[in-house]
Design a protein that fits this description.
The complex is a heterodimer of chains A (546) and B (279).
Chain A: E1 6-10, E2 13-16, E3 21-25, E4 28-31, E5 34-36, E6 43-46, E7 50-54, E8 56-61, H1 66-74, H2 76-81, E9 84-85, E10 94-95, H3 102-110, E11 114-122, H4 127-135, E12 141-147, H5 152-159, H6 163-176, E13 181-185, H7 189-193, H8 214-227, E14 234-237, H9 247-256, E15 262-264, E16 272-273, E17 281-282, H10 284-293, E18 297-300, E19 307-313, H11 316-326, E20 331-335, E21 339-348, H12 353-368, E22 375-376, H13 390-398, H14 400-407, H15 429-443, E23 460-464, H16 469-474, E24 478-481, E25 484-488, E26 491-492, E27 500-503, H17 511-522, E28 540-543
Parallel strand pairs in A: 1-6, 2-7, 8-11, 11-12, 12-13, 12-27, 13-14, 14-15, 15-18, 18-22, 27-28
Antiparallel strand pairs in A: 1-4, 2-3, 4-5, 7-23, 9-10, 16-17, 19-21, 20-21, 23-24, 24-25, 25-26
Helix pairs in contact in A: 5-6, 6-8, 9-10, 10-12
Chain B: E1 10-14, E2 22-23, H1 29-32, H2 37-41, E3 44-47, E4 50-53, H3 54-57, E5 58-61, E6 67-71, E7 77-78, E8 88-92, E9 107-111, E10 126-129, E11 152-155, E12 171-174, E13 190-193, E14 209-212, E15 223-228, H4 232-240, E16 254-261, E17 269-276
The structure holds zinc ion (ZN).
Chain lengths: 546, 279
């Protein structure tokens, strides 16, 4: 993965927000997989008239693991609709679409200039399988977040007021899953789902417990992540995803997070007003205002685009509701004591009022949150749209005429439920470089990513300077990963292997004596087969906690 | 050079039977019409994971036209006529799986047997098979919401499982006996069973009509509604008679017994079972 090519990219307009470089024409030198100040020999790439970006970083995506595979198996109709990649001398074969196969995921991400992704939801129990799949996902570097907010061992400890031990368990779990961060999905809600319920109030006990509330889980996990000094804040999928009026829960959650760092995942799905589906509306303004006031928070858009996709989330109760609302097929997975998962194929339609509001809210948040360093471009792939459609969102952000044209396609009744028609802000290339690369890299605590400064990883994307931003960002001229040219003239030339990024937080190893008997009593597998060995992670890079 | 399609036909003769299935979705009048003989010979087919040329497996006669004739046992050649919109394909021999899948116009005639998925998710046009066919005729592919949406499929012999599964419109008529689950999850359209079917006919059907000229073993979720003379069948009979699928009229010879179901869904489909008068 560490390339040994020597490269000089000359004449390109460089956008490197991590170093405050805003469209300056300068040379970029690469040696031994890193950005260097100068090189003597090597190949020269003429990027005159082109735009040079740090490689893209996706802070929240679902590209591997048991749930995604379940979805892949559930939607053969999607595979047929979409592009088949035929194996050739360089590439493996596979299928694109809503849930691309492993190799194709790597090719498609790299094919739009992305070089690092964070797989946002991994149960410890299926982490081994997830790492196997990530091993077969080439080119890009991968990190994962381990699901903790419905883990019964953790919840039991919080119920008993044993915060310190809960912290040890979380630390142990991160290392057991070879994860990079901690994910919390509908805290308490997935546990409640095992009783056929969802959590009711943010400050009401989780069904099956007498004391612990979603608010306790959220604030405890945020504090634990900070105390473990993880490079990435707690990665939180708030309660009440997708529900009318969930703005109240989201605002309460922000309050509960005061004093801690947190990343709010796919904020679009959590910014709705109204009491039911008939008066469903955007509450992006209130959410953005409160978010702007809380510098401890980062978020990603979770934007939706119209068209076919499949929704996959650990939020089991929500998925059951979605199945009931749409009548589409539904898959439900139970992951023993840790979490669950639901899968429902879905079509976002322009003429559907709810979908129109969702489409608008994703863009509104990107436009209303004033600091691009704190909100990042995502679709919660594949939930809002497949990741390979990001360039369409970039165009909507940069091109006001195009955005207005799209707004005109909505059902007129949608217009008084959204704010988008009133927003005239347009993103600059510098801001696009922040929300697609420098920002998410910073949120993940990856100083060597999303960065074109000397010493950073040589992950670089070179684009034609096209008026049509969607076209521009769909077809990079060159993509360089770890110093190796992987895409040249829009074609895959080289499929290097990516790294597995993880952390080893400090925890007391004796916590295993506490976990082992609980595990052996309740789980279906042997405890010794549970933690993932480091060798299972391809090109593992253990990042520091400090 | 702009070529016009000739009125002559294009003839492909199988040189060797492939040892594994050969995928031939290029074999449609749409794809061949404006090509020269040499261009047709060079078109790609897929054999397993390898790409081969048309002339690796076929002798090609004539330039492209709207009329394609295929000679030989192409029972291992899949996807012939896939997505075709016009023209005619005549196969003198057996045809492989997915014949005429997704087609929206034109006609396919097979003088021989066909395999599974004849006319899978077709949108229009006509497919006629003189011999037997496999299962999933006019059906929805796995995971799809609906099967054939229009068009006609006529089978001279028997057919397999799940005939017309999830079909929405169009007609399927089968002279021989049909296996289980004919009209599974049917949403509309008509299936004519000249020799009846095995079990679970019409399971989970929501709408549509299944006509059987032989007695059927009905699911308990179908209820008898009436015995009558469905006048619309005269129209169907008139249209199908030239192909040898004339339907008897209720009267002196017998009557149609109508059942409604499948109430397990619940659905409002109908089964019309011909009951001859006892002599
Ligand atoms: Zn997600």
């Amino acid at each position: 993965m560490r390339g040994n090519s020597i490269l000089r990219i000359v004449g390109g307009r460089v956008y490197d927000p991590a170093n405050g470089v805003d469209g300056v024409v300068r040379d970029l030198c690469i040696c031994d997989g890193k950005i260097v100040a100068d090189v003597e020999a090597g190949r020269t790439i003429d990027a005159t008239g082109m735009v040079v970006f740090p490689g893209g970083v996706d802070v929240h995506t679902h590209v591997a693991g048991a749930a995604l595979n379940f979805a892949r198996a559930m939607i053969p109709e999607d595979h047929r609709r979409n592009l088949a990649f035929v194996r050739d001398r360089i590439r493996h074969g596979g299928i694109g679409g809503s849930t691309p196969t492993t190799y194709i995921t790597g090719y498609l991400y790299a094919g739009q200039g992305y070089t690092t992704v964070n797989e946002a939801a991994v149960p410890i129990l299926t982490a081994r399988h997830t790492h196997e799949e990530l091993r077969d996902t080439p080119i890009i570097d991968k990190s994962t977040c381990v699901l903790m907010a419905n883990n019964e061992i953790v919840l039991d400890l919080l119920e008993a007021g044993e915060y310190e031990r809960a912290k040890e368990v979380v630390g142990w779990s991160i290392w057991a899953a070879k994860a990079y961060g901690v994910k919390a999905v509908n805290p308490g809600g997935v546990t409640a789902w095992k009783w056929g319920k969802d959590v009711k109030g943010f400050r009401e006990p989780v069904p099956g417990y007498s004391k612990v509330t979603p608010a306790d889980i959220v604030s405890s996990l945020a504090k634990i992540v900070d105390e473990l000094r993880l490079p990435h804040a707690v990665h939180l999928h708030c309660n009440n995803l997708g529900a009318p009026g969930n703005v109240a829960t989201t605002l309460e959650t922000m309050k509960a997070l005061e004093g801690s760092r947190a990343h709010l995942a796919h904020l679009q799905y959590h910014a709705y007003g109204g009491d039911d589906w008939t008066n469903f509306r955007s509450e992006s303004v209130r959410i953005a205002e409160e978010f702007n006031r809380n510098p401890n928070l980062t978020t990603d858009a979770g934007a939706v685009l119209f068209g076919n996709t499949v929704t996959i989330t650990a939020d089991g109760p929500w998925q059951h509701l979605l199945h009931k609302l749409t009548g589409r097929k539904w898959g439900n997975i139970d992951v023993e004591n840790e979490t669950g998962c639901g899968v429902v194929p879905y079509v976002y339609k322009e003429k559907n009022l709810v979908n129109a509001v969702q489409w608008a809210v994703g863009l509104e948040l990107l436009l209303l949150i004033d600091d691009p360093w704190r909100i990042y471009l995502t679709t919660d792939h594949p939930n809002g749209a497949a990741f390979w459609r990001y360039p369409e969102i970039i165009r909507l952000l940069m091109d006001l005429d195009f955005r207005r044209e799209q707004i005109r396609k909505l059902a007129p009744a949608a217009l008084n439920r959204i704010f988008l028609p009133e927003l005239n802000r347009c993103y600059t290339l510098y801001e696009i470089a922040i929300i697609t690369s420098a920002g998410p890299a910073r949120a993940l605590g990856l100083a060597n990513k999303g960065n074109l400064g000397v010493g950073a990883d040589a992950d670089v994307a070179v684009f034609n300077n096209d008026k049509d931003a969607a076209k521009m960002f769909s077809y990079p001229r060159y993509v360089i990963k770890g110093g190796e040219i992987v895409i040249e003239e829009g074609e895959i030339r080289n499929t290097v292997e990516g790294k597995g990024l993880l952390v080893r937080p400090h925890y007391d190893p004796s916590v295993e004596d506490f976990i082992r008997p609980l595990f052996e009593k309740h789980y279906t597998m042997s405890f010794d087969n549970y933690p993932v060995e480091l060798e299972r992670v391809e090109h593992a890079e253990v990042r520091p906690c400090n | 050079m702009q070529l016009t399609a000739t009125t002559a036909k294009t003839v492909l003769t199988l040189k060797q039977r492939p040892h594994i299935p050969l995928e031939a979705e290029v074999l449609t009048p749409d794809r061949l019409a404006f090509k020269t003989r040499d261009e047709i010979a060079a078109l790609p087919l897929v054999l397993g994971k390898r790409q081969v040329r048309v002339d690796d497996y076929f002798d090609v006669e004539g330039d492209g036209s709207h009329e394609l004739e295929i000679h030989g046992d192409v029972g291992r050649v899949k996807w012939i006529g896939r997505g075709m919109t016009r023209g005619r394909i005549v196969i003198r021999g057996n045809a492989g799986m997915h014949l005429g899948a997704f087609m929206s116009g034109g006609a396919i005639e097979v003088d021989g047997n066909a395999s599974d998925w004849v006319g899978g998710e077709m949108r229009g046009g006509l497919i006629r098979v003189t011999g037997n066919a496999g299962g999933q005729i006019g059906a929805a592919y796995r995971g799809s919401m609906s099967g054939m949406r229009d068009g006609t499929i006529l089978i001279g012999g028997t057919a397999g499982l799940e005939v017309g599964m999830r079909m929405k419109r169009g007609i399927i008529a089968i002279r021989g006996k049909v296996k289980d689950f004919a009209g599974l999850q049917m949403k509309g359209g008509t299936i004519v069973l000249m020799s009846g079917a095995e079990i679970r006919t019409g399971a989970w059907m929501v709408r549509g009509t299944i006509i059987s000229l032989a007695p059927l073993r009905l699911l308990p979720t179908f209820a008898f509604t009436s015995a009558y003379d469905p006048t619309f069948l005269n129209l169907y009979s008139k249209c199908l008679a030239p192909y040898g699928f004339a339907l008897p009229r209720a009267g002196k010879e017998g009557i149609y017994r109508r059942y409604m179901g499948d109430s397990a869904v619940p659905g409002k489909g109908e089964l019309l079972v011909w009951q001859p008068n006892s002599p």
